[in-house]
Amino acid sequence: MPEFTARFATAAEIAQWDSLVTANPNGGNLLQSEAFAAVKKNYGWDPQFIAFEGPDFTSYNLVLQKQFPVLGKLWYLIKGPDAADVSEIPPMLEALRVFVKRAKLKVFAAKIEPDVIASDDAHAVLSGAGLVKVPDLQPNDSTALLDISPEPNQLLRNLHSRGRNAVRRAIREEVQVVPMEPTEETMRTMYDLMVGTITAKSNSQARDFDYYKQFWSEFAKRGQGRFYFVFEDGVASVGAFVINYGSKATYKDGGSLQKRNQYGDSHLVQWVAINDMKELGALQYDFCGTPPSDRLKDPTHPHHGLGLFKTSFSKSVTDFVGCYDLVLSPLRYKLWSVAGERVFRQLYTRRTGKQFY
């Protein structure tokens, strides 16, 4: 088993954070980015930047930190730690345990959610390391992934027939996809389309506009995020915000009017974005959230409709292992798991009106 050490990243490393994260074994994740850290800093989290040094690579990971009375600090390694193989995660976390204790950081637990594809073996490795399985937090712990490395004609042929036919028809009918500048007006329009879609197709609730405004702005100003719209009779009918981060592109946010006349418009938005991301060097396109693979055809799942749309591009769903807790203080973690998490989440939402995680 390889040995790792854990430490805080240096100021020089933080200054080039995105280039280091995207050089991680799995290519990093947009939720580990400098832009996302800037967003979460304004929403109740204190970003920390951690490096795991091993014999073959150094993995750079964003940690979101919250501090609570009596309990101490909770660390959330969002979409991390980034490892080449699931077998490397236990020694990385052992290094984290040693680091936290040696530096007297008063962290009682660390949540992890590595981009490791779910399997019995993967779950066995994580459970065998003493990790506690907890409810998943991110929408793309199950998602549709598309390899966009083939040349465009082959890539189009590789799509599911439903998506391919919709794209071709939209092109024939001359539907126009318009890249939009990240202005206040663009963001307001995008948000309205999102809220309308969520209201019609899901029982979930969108975050407030200010959250999305900062999120979109942080990625856009770094050249990592783009808006795409389709208009019908002069009115925005489909919108999407897509992020390019290293070799991965992500359809992060989207929405549409529920009554539209242009067939295939939402599919063509994705097709244009996919080809733009490909030109920017992306090799994989993440549609960012579907039902789990075993519930893809379940009409009662809140993301059933979104899952059907997204799998009209990629023919299958990828399930990741999801969220686990590394217990660093058994007594304080017991207080957290029995009542602390529930109470602090309720208090935070009641006080701020915002989501806890």
Automatic annotation (TrEMBL):
Keywords on record: Acyltransferase, Cell shape, Cell wall biogenesis/degradation, Peptidoglycan synthesis, Transferase
Record-stated family: Belongs to the FemABX family.
GO molecular function per UniProt: aminoacyltransferase activity
This protein's name: Methicillin resistance protein
Alphabetical list of InterPro entries matching this protein: Acyl_CoA_acyltransferase, FEMABX, PG_Glycine_Bridge_Synth
Pfam families (alphabetical): FemAB
Highest taxon listed in the record's lineage: Bacteria
Organism taxonomic ancestry: Bacteria, Bacillati, Actinomycetota, Actinomycetes, Micrococcales
